[in-house]
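Usage

Read records sequentially. Each one opens with the input sequence:
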Amino acid sequence: MRGTSHQFASPLADTNETARHALRKLNERVENEARRIAHELHDEASQMLASVYLAIAEVARDVPAARERLSAIPPLLDQVTEQLRQLSHELCPIILDDLGLAAALEFLAQGVARRTGLLITVENSVTERLSPAIETAVYRIFQEALTNVTKHARARRVGITLEQQDETIAGSIRDDGVGVDLCSLFGLTGSRGLGLIGIRARLADVKGTLAIECGEGEGTTLEFRIPVERQ
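and closes with the structure output:
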């Protein structure tokens, strides 16, 4: 038997200016911290891995008998290096600034799919650049939603859509998972709600609205709308 679906809308656009200012400052701090961690992943971790490469080469040179076994290590380190590069770019998506939201979302989906085995499709009809605040918010919303899916939904497929409807940007992420507890989703109980708190904060900052529909065994759909501010 299919579960019953429910839908909730959150009037985030009515948040008062003081609260929006506080959320904006919070999101700025989050972005700065993400940038710092991304740089450490890229620079410091890369330097450490370079030292490991050199150490392996030295051991292989000094201990000829171990060369064959040591030869299997550099390819593994190559994978670690690529993973760190992907994570650092997801944390601090330079591609978002350089190439725009469409390219950044494709990059994000490919990285998550590669790590988790999820089949993720992206349909995006928004071709023009939006304000930096909106582009960052949309990217982070999809990023947090994908994290929720990978942690809790037990899904196999995820569909991401983004389109412009008149003066509004409409986005959604749908999974074919088990469905989740709406109380947890809305941050009332449990760790699952933490991701939704972040999503709601992002939307409040750009005067967006949020709706979630889910039912046991029916998967979950998260939809949001944001008034357009073109760059």
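Summary fields computed downstream for this record:
- DSSP finds eight helices and six strands in the chain.
- The helical segments are 17-62, 67-70, 73-91, 94-99, 101-116, 132-153, 182-185, 193-205.
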